Amino acid sequence: LKTICITIAAISFFKVNSFADEIISSEKPKTVNVNQYINIIEKLDSKDLVKAPKIKLNPINTTPMGYESAVFVLGQLRTGYKNHVENNFAEALKVYDNLLASKRLPEYMKNFILRQKPLAEVKKVPMSPKDYFTLIDSTKDSYLLLTYSTEGLIIDSSNYKFKELADSAAFSILKQSLSNQKSGRYNEAFKGYNTIANNVLLETRHTNRAKELKVLADKGIFKPLGGMVIVLDAGHNYGGNVGAHGNGYGETELNMEIVQKLKVQLEAQGARIVLTRSPGEKRYDDSSVELPRRAAMANKSQADLFISIHHDSSTSSSASGSSAFYSSYKNGVNNSSAYVLVENGTYLYTSSNNSTRAGYVQPGQTLNYIGQAPDGFMVNYNGRNLFISNEHSMIFNTAPSFQSILSRDLATKTSAYLSTGIGTKNRGIGDRNLYVTKNTNMASILVEIGFISNYSEITKISKPSYQLKAANEITRAIIAIYGA
Ligand SMILES: [Zn+2]
After folding, report:
1. Predicted pLDDT of residue 297
2. C-alpha of residue 472 to centroid of ligand 1, in Å
């Protein structure tokens, strides 16, 4: 690691509660590495910008700015671009030049100005989202994809396609960086972690993970799931949401036993775990209360991943095996290519006010999805907006979000690994509108470990040794997708 000498003026009244505080309050010059140096600068930026000049450093001007400053600059950038769009070329140039004068401007913001400014100089309109999509189509490099999609988000922060591209590019860069760190290529690893950590336009789950991976890398620690927040959901409870029972076993308890073992293993790999219910906690709410609570908990925690653990059941006592489910359709993410499929019969649909019989939908018919409604959703059929109930239909997405694709990949690996690890039949994966996978905005899967209704299967897989194996296989699947 490159080291930089910095001399710091003593600021003795700082409370010492972190390494950065320790450096700031130190009376003697300290030698820190690039990563620690960036942490200190970020800290000063967010606390008090006037203290920054008290730090003498070499080389100068290589530091990205802190979060607050970057958010401020983003506002300025948008003002400059808006002026540019409105043909206020002189105003736009003034803003662009002011920002360029800042020597600590993050690379992605500087690139944006350097693409727009020459156009303003010759009184031409700035690059549009369409122009950025042309650039994006011409590259497969993760860093360039991130650059272009981030610049697209500077122009249009609500553009779903830019968000998707930035989401997938950030994910690949973090994975690449983990691989680099694992092979000892620390400079490359830090480049990736810093790129993600300093980009204020990315999902918090990525910036938070990058910041934590930086801290770990700085200490020379490699954890494949470092910085990840994983929500573990032991399916069901003790009340109106009771799961499968049979052969002397209850799903509510078995699911928790797996979750506890999984928690220990995932934490050992660097993940931070959030539980939707705790061991010993007895919740009695029915699923209409319990499931929305669990999904909301995951969405609020900025989690990278949500995993719901279950045990299967069937009226046939010979049914057996492991499986995993995901949703290509996620209610809170991208629904632009969603459609509704009506299954298993001919079902009545009604008009939008739910009072007039409007006609019938044939089995297997697909309908254009409009949006969610209580207990169902709205579709467009022959130019009319109609209500369809959840009961006999499914929503799919032909262009699933990046988080849905991750969910599908993780489901595939989880089911296969589990089957091999605990000797169950691999029943594979399924795209389902399960409440928790459909309503969580991050990658999410629901795992069925095995069948409670199959006596020989449940007596085997409920043994602590098999539960440990199951937890180990799920952990391996997560590392295969999120680690290096
Ligand atoms: Zn269940």
Report:
1. 97
2. 20
